Amino acid sequence: xxxxxxxxxxxxxxxxxxxxxxxxxxxxxxxxxxxxxxxxxxxxxxxxxxxxxxxxxxxxxxxxxxxxxxxxxxxxxxxxxxxxxxxx
Length: 88
Known about the structure:
Layout: H1 6-15, H2 20-36, H3 44-87
Helix pairs in contact: 1-2
């Protein structure tokens, strides 16, 4: 867990001519971050694994779409050619 001396940080912010309300707001954000912790964060390797899984799923969906679209496009072309022959 990350630890920050909030009193010292508050004094530093005030010494930097930051208004008291802003200094308190910044330290409230830091306090919230400390309480939340880092347990919910994802590591780089976990992120890469998840992205690889998502990419694989996207490629599978693309394949499924093409599997259906190509025959439909060919069928539509055949219907158009058939209609043109009937009208000619």
